[in-house]
Amino acid sequence: MDRIVVTGIGVISAIGHSVNENHAALVMGKTGIIKGGGNFPSRYSGLLPFGEVLVSTDELKTKLNVTQPGVTRTTLLALHAFKEAIADAGLSPDELSAHDTALVGATTVGGMCLTDELYANTHGDTENVEYVRSFDYASVNLFIQNRYNITGVVNTMNTACSSSANAIMYGCRLIKNGLASRVIVGGADSLAKFTVNGFNALRILSDEACTPFDQNRKGLNLGEGAAFLVLEKESDATGKKNYACVSGYGNANDAYHPSSLSPEGDGPYLAMKSALESAGLNPADIDFINAHGTGTENNDEVESRAMLNLFGTLPNFASTKGFTGHTLGAASAIEAVYSVLNIDRQELYPNLNFSEPIADIRLQPVMDHRSAAITHVMSNSFGFGGNCTSLVFSKP
Amino acid sequence: MEIAELKEKLKVQIIQFLNLTDLTPADIKDDEPLFGDGLGLDSIDSLELIVLLKREYGVNIQDPKEGRKVLVDVNTMAAYIKEHGQK
Amino acid sequence: MMFYIHKAACISPQQTFGDIDIEQLHVAVDNKLYAIEPKYPHFNGNALRRMSKSTRMGAGAALPLLADNDKPNGIIIGTQVSGMEENGKFLNQIIEYNEDMLTPGSFVQGTPNTISSQIALINNNKNYNLTHVHRGLAFENAALDAAMLVNENPAHTYLLGGVDEISANNYTLDTLGGWFKKEPCPSDGLYNSTTAGSLSGEGATMFTVSGNQAGAIAKLSAITTIHSSDVAVVKERIKNFISKELPDGKKIDLLLTGENGDARVFPFYQACEEILDDQTAIARFKHMSGEYPTASSFALWLACNFVGGILNIPRHMIKRHGDLKSLKNILVYNTHKVGQHGCMLVNVA
């Protein structure tokens, strides 16, 4: 079987509107998390820090030449990253609409970012119905599918914070099972009252910039963004830029609690272990782990224990949530792009805001930008509902 | 409000708020532990109960860890409302 | 892409769970077909109170398939939004309490992956777990996932399901969007309606599937999804699907369609009927299930029971009897909101 290679990447996040801008911020150690000064219309803007993409929804519409009604911010962010990825891979309109091109996207907010509009519509407003067709998750990818006339498999998945890792895995499996020759995979989420209030009600939002893997971490910051990757069979990608290959993936469920991980981290452990098995690698082969590392008390401790159980001695690891915030359905795709950059540029990026290791665990993430010989990177994503997925990217 | 009356009202509200449809107020003893072996509530319930205290009694518990001391049983909840309630 | 179906369970607006009787038609009330829910004796009160209706129906339908401590190698669910009613409650709280001091319960219960994760919890199942939410093709995509898994691991067994619920919010939004009828419409008059929209429905259907033929009740031999709003394109794609997937010398014995009384959608079903010869039997199911994004899972449940010889096709489903003699190959065709189409070919195992 051909290897599956990454031939195009696109990303928009709080640290930049393109791969190059994101890369520059990662190298500089420049966070995108701010308190106040953004556009997000919530009582918490100014009170809680967010990883906001500092472009208004109207500006995004103009920039992307979107004129039809009913297009949500989530969709616009997705479209932005999608465009960059397909241009990077040089996919032609014919290739995009070929029956063997698939689109697999993830989102946890989708059209639910329209809290106020939906409230008005479900409470008697029958005049302003611009968004009644876009309230669900599928609306994001259906818009992209229509715009680019994609005729192959199109799918949307939502497994909370691991959604887009599953989209990437699913895309690889479509290729391996002969249902697609090339897939465009990724995820998108916009800041929404829906998720901000949900996470706030669970009391896991920090009122300061998040500090993944630090003893004194206070919770996560929500962010927004999108990322897409173009995956092709190696034999079809001759002459193209080949960033990395997707060499493994593992999906497992923690089966413990609706919103927190088990103390020993069975789900995370099993996801990482089966990702290694599917890549045919040993723990010692992994050079770097892009950890889920949200900055919550529960995740960082459990993830640390699960990594220790599997790896014994850990390779270098870091969470990039201190740059972007937790972008939920976009997180795994954004971090997949960062993992691909780790390999392509042969360098590591810092885990921001870390000062003191978690007592008893004593793990210290990478704290600076540095060159490193990187062959295999693991990227972790663990979500509500115990949905855990790990991916392995390797040097082409 | 008398403390006994407050406790009865609390039991009704707990059942309603947490959707404990198979219980009646009489099933909940004043000193029955809310969590663990008693009613078997969990961490999400404790956050729901903190909201109950705020909405119904104007009691503010900012730190969920503080909540664990208040949300032991109906007795401790009622005592805390008596001391800190605004409504 | 194929799999064998070994067990199937369905909670629907009809008597499909427990003592099954689909001859007697349960009709819509106020244009809604609500699921007939069992008493769920296996869930204690503490578990039930934390479940959205979707999760309750989904886990309830899954339980009989997980008896004897069966632990599938994966749980794959298709749903548009899952706990839409809980989602709605949470959205309403955000506005009504102006984002202040909200209860997290409905947020947690409203996330779509709670169906698959609740089943994982009940079954203590740490295996593969995925939720597909691609609206009218959420179930077809979940089925495709299951078929790929079976192809990857033929000896493994997977739990596959499709679940959606009627909620105040989605009923209002979809009615505003023109997808549900605005005038009263009786169940038995659905197919004579000439207006836009359909009846609203809900349900949960679960299957255990594997690559193992022995003991199976049916085989899903092929599945395809089509994204198009062009009748001619859809017709051509269905035609190609049949000629590619139906073995030479075999014929479609029954076309089971999602015709739903919506005048705008009718041309697609008509086009599909035209592909087959005029003696092919045709049956419809939306007067039983109502319209919902994963209603095709209800159709697959029916098709399995028909080819498996477990149930007979009730008279109220038949549109054209044709020369229906034996039931070996059923084509299920369903479209949701015009743009999304799914075809499944179901055969005797």
Q: Any descriptors?
A:
heterotrimer; B: 87 residues; mainly alpha; Non-ribosomal Peptide Synthetase Peptidyl Carrier Protein, Chain A; C: 349 residues; Peroxisomal Thiolase, Chain A, domain 1; eleven-stranded mixed β-sheet; two-stranded parallel ribbon; 11 helices; 22% strand; Phosphopantetheine-binding protein (chain B); PP-bd_ACP (chain B)
Describe this structure in a few short sentences:
Chain B: Residues 1-85 form the Carrier domain. The complex is a heterotrimer of chains A (396), B (87) and C (349). Chain B is an all-alpha fold.
Structure, described:
The complex is a heterotrimer of chains A (396), B (87) and C (349). Chain A is α/β, with parallel strands linked by helices and 396 residues long. Chain A has twelve helices and twelve strands. In chain A, the strands form two sheets. Chain A has a ten-stranded mixed beta sheet with strand order 3-2-4-5-1-6-12-11-7-8, sandwiched between helices. In chain A, helix 2 packs parallel to helix 3 (73-88) and helix 3 (73-88) packs across helix 6 (139-147). The two termini of chain A are 15 Å apart. The mean pLDDT of chain A is 96. Chain B has 87 residues and is mainly α. Chain B has a single domain (3-84), classed as Non-ribosomal Peptide Synthetase Peptidyl Carrier Protein, Chain A, CATH 1.10.1200.10. In chain B, 55% of the residues lie in helices and 0% in strands. The longest helix of chain B has 15 residues, at 3-17. The mean pLDDT of chain B is 89. Chain C has two domains: 3-210, Thiolase/Chalcone synthase (Peroxisomal Thiolase, Chain A, domain 1), CATH 3.40.47; 221-347, Thiolase/Chalcone synthase (Peroxisomal Thiolase, Chain A, domain 1), CATH 3.40.47. Chain C contains eleven helices and 13 strands. In chain C, the strands form two sheets. Chain C has an eleven-stranded mixed beta sheet with strand order 4-3-5-7-1-8-13-12-9-10-11, with helices on both faces. The interface between A and C is large, with 66 and 65 residues. Chain B: Pfam families: PP-binding. Chain B: Residues 1-85 form the Carrier domain. Chain B: InterPro entries: ACP-like_sf (IPR036736), PP-bd_ACP (IPR009081). Chain B: This is Phosphopantetheine-binding protein.
